[in-house]
Design goal:
With 362 residues, the protein is an alpha/beta fold. The protein has two domains: 84 residues; 262 residues, Rossmann fold, CATH 3.40.50. It has a five-stranded parallel sheet with strand order 2-1-3-4-5, with helices on both faces. Strand 4, helix 13 and strand 5 form a beta-alpha-beta unit. The protein is elongated.
Length: 362
């Protein structure tokens, strides 16, 4: 009896550690420590099974039931070990698989903190400014981004261009402008062309000026707290759960953005922020091209919310603009985006955008 209690206690303690560890250390060396704990749990479970069901005479029905439960538990432990090494991107970086994806693919990181090679001004510089769409969220290689495609193909045509990408996730227009100015200050690199990528979240800074902020992506208050804990600590269950889109995350954010774009004061302030890019380009004789992205999973909604108005705004100011909605409208949604939980542009869309920008440059 003492052996049964001892092995049971060890399994419970180790399982608790296994489920808590990902909440604080979801990637890196902790993964291998967690794998070690799973192996120990498996060994202890086998010892417990032997003591209870093999070394003792018990009812056959109970023995069969115990064998089934043991088999299910072993399968779960094996699946848990496997899914610790399966990365998958997510728009909001909300999942354990997404954290694994970042750890594996979000590179190279240069000395300035951007996902790009070290910047140089050796040739004519094209500077790419934007958020996660520019940084290449969901793309395993930076070579598949529209910025890198442009740099590569422009040089193949004999034009000596250096493509520099300073895109960072979660930036709004004001943040992008500040990052760009900081880049100029630190590097003293002056570009000949600036490619500004626009996304629906770029209005957040202006919205915050008027006290309207998004509270963040949160699960509903009535969700079972135990299930949240287990789902957050299990790579296997977390992966399965997030295989299906969760509207409770996206809808509040869409409502927030819709309110922001419908607010004349916020929109006017936002356009003042966009004007900063136009003024800087004009004052420094830099060609400015703006690439306006819709939410790729719902182009029509994006067009009515902000795309058409923002495109018209830049056209009215005689700025060269690319409306990505027009490029992707005939492409199936599944081919526009990284995956059903990650609405960032696919390789195909990045190639289309790159070709349109190359046409503008030529």
């Amino acid at each position: 009896m003492k052996k049964i209690l001892l092995h049971s206690l060890i399994i419970i303690v180790l399982l608790t550690a296994v489920f808590i560890l990902p909440l604080y250390y979801p990637k890196g060396p902790a993964i291998y420590f967690r794998l070690f704990l799973l192996i120990v749990i498996l060994i202890e479970t086998m010892k417990l099974f032997k003591i209870v069901f093999i070394d003792r005479r018990i009812n056959k029905i109970i023995s069969n039931a115990g064998t089934v439960l043991f088999s299910i538990f072993v399968i779960f432990i094996l699946l848990e070990a496997i899914f610790m090494f399966i990365p998958r991107s997510h728009s909001a970086d909300f999942t354990l698989a997404s954290k694994l994806w970042y750890a594996k693919y979000w590179k190279p990181i240069n000395s300035l903190g951007f996902r790009d090679y070290e910047p140089t001004g050796d040739h004519h510089v094209i500077l790419f400014v934007g958020d996660s769409f520019t940084a290449g969220h969901g793309l395993k290689s930076i070579e598949d981004r529209f910025s890198n495609i442009i740099g590569r193909e422009a040089n193949q045509k004999g034009k000596k261009y250096t493509a520099i990408n300073i895109g960072k996730p979660n930036l709004d227009t004001r943040g992008e402008y500040d990052v760009m100015k900081q880049f100029f200050y630190e590097t003293r690199i002056k570009p000949e062309k600036i490619i500004l990528q626009y996304g629906g979240n770029d209005i957040e800074g202006a919205s915050a000026d008027f006290g309207i902020k998004f509270d963040g992506f949160k699960p509903p208050a009535n969700m079972n707290k135990f299930l949240i804990l287990v789902g957050s600590g299990s790579y296997f269950l977390n992966y399965i759960y997030w295989q299906f889109p969760r509207e409770y995350l996206g809808m509040p954010y869409m409502t927030f953005l819709s309110q922001a774009y419908k607010n004349d004061r916020i929109l006017s302030k936002h356009k003042e922020d966009l004007q900063l890019f136009m003024d800087y380009a004009k004052e420094n004789s830099i060609q400015l091209i703006v690439v306006v992205f819709p939410f790729l999973a719902d182009v029509e909604m994006s067009d009515s919310m902000y795309v058409n108005d923002i495109v018209d705004f830049f056209k009215a100011n005689k700025v060269s603009v690319i409306n990505v909605s027009q490029l992707v409208k005939d492409i199936p949604v599944s081919e526009r985006i990284i995956n059903k939980n990650d609405g960032h542009p696919s390789k195909r869309v990045n190639r289309l955008v790159a070709q349109e920008i190359l046409n503008k440059l030529e």
